[in-house]
Amino acid sequence: MQPTDTSLHPVPDALLYLAGRWQVLRTAQDLAGGMDGTFTGTTDFSDLPPHDDEGDEGGGGDGGTEVDKGAGGLSHHESGAFTWNGVTRPAERTLRYLQASAAGTVRVEFAHGGFFHDLDLRTGHYVADHPCSLDMYRGEFTVLGPDRWRTVWRVAGPAKDLVLTTEYRRDRARR
């Protein structure tokens, strides 16, 4: 995937950049079924304690980069409302963003600790893949400025045919 915006903003330290509260607007397009949905809410990136789990190899066997043992990270907690097919419901998720061994990069994990994807925003753009059963998630991350970034996830496979586009804008009132 190529960046969709020519005005990329390099980020030397992803954790430092992401820390704080972000306003979120996500569109979900079901390409097979022709339905659309939206999510509106917030994402809070708050401090995690240093990563020192005994016996956790932080990248061995499950893909991704090694984590920097002893370094902290961020808890990514997203909450809001998701509207799909005319029905609005509360929605939330939690991820862990851990300092990877390469300076400024991140290992993203699900709340249960399973590997999701790596993240390297040092050029302002990054593409990550995540296989999920027989479907493939391909995420494109683009930093558009000091207070704005976007993700576009393309999900393709036998179970899903989706495009999820999320715009993040820093909430200056709660930084």
UniProtKB/TrEMBL annotation:
Chain residue ranges for the region called Disordered: 36-85
Ranges of residues in domain DUF6314: 18-170
Pfam families: DUF6314
InterPro entries referenced in this protein's UniProt entry, alphabetically: DUF6314
Highest taxon listed in the record's lineage: Bacteria
Name this polypeptide is given: DUF6314 domain-containing protein
